[in-house]
């Protein structure tokens, strides 16, 4: 699997949309589900690209090319294989904190919720708090998903959470971060807030949510 994710990473870096999609298509034909496609292929490939960037083996421009191709592949997969029936009584909104540009992970989470029949809205990267609150107050989602990648963003995260607490019916909040479980989140003691460290965490959350509502 590692070789295949690296092969996919190279196709991303080459800007090769066709080869990238054919790698994904082959796994779909073998019966692999969305969690596998997202976690074992797309996420691993982009993580490898991130490692190459950190070691100065590629440039920021290379990373941007790879991100664009990965985004296209993710969007195409979602369009072709994710069901469109949505339950208007299960609404979710996903976005990145202001200043956060790494959006692929939260976009995958958005797609997984959509696959489970949720009515979802993906608001993209770098969303200022005022616009997040405006949308939340109008849509009234049951779930709000946010993403961050730097520990320096934790105080900003607290500001967003404090603002959400002022909403009449605070939604469940899922916080995705590639920082991993070692970050200090002791300042968050809200029962409605959950940290998500992998897409398997999302799978477990959705399963538990389904059991509670059935």
UniProtKB/TrEMBL annotation:
Gene3D superfamilies: Cobalamin-binding domain, Methionine synthase domain. GO terms for molecular function: cobalamin binding; metal ion binding; methionine synthase activity. One of its GO terms (cellular component) is cytosol. Residues 89-213 form the B12-binding domain. PROSITE patterns: B12_BINDING. Pfam families: B12-binding, B12-binding_2. It comes from the Bacteria. Keywords: Cobalt, Metal-binding. GO terms for biological process: homocysteine metabolic process; tetrahydrofolate metabolic process. PANTHER family: METHIONINE SYNTHASE. This is B12-binding domain-containing protein. It comes from Halalkalibacter wakoensis JCM 9140. The lineage of its organism: Bacteria, Bacillati, Bacillota, Bacilli, Bacillales.
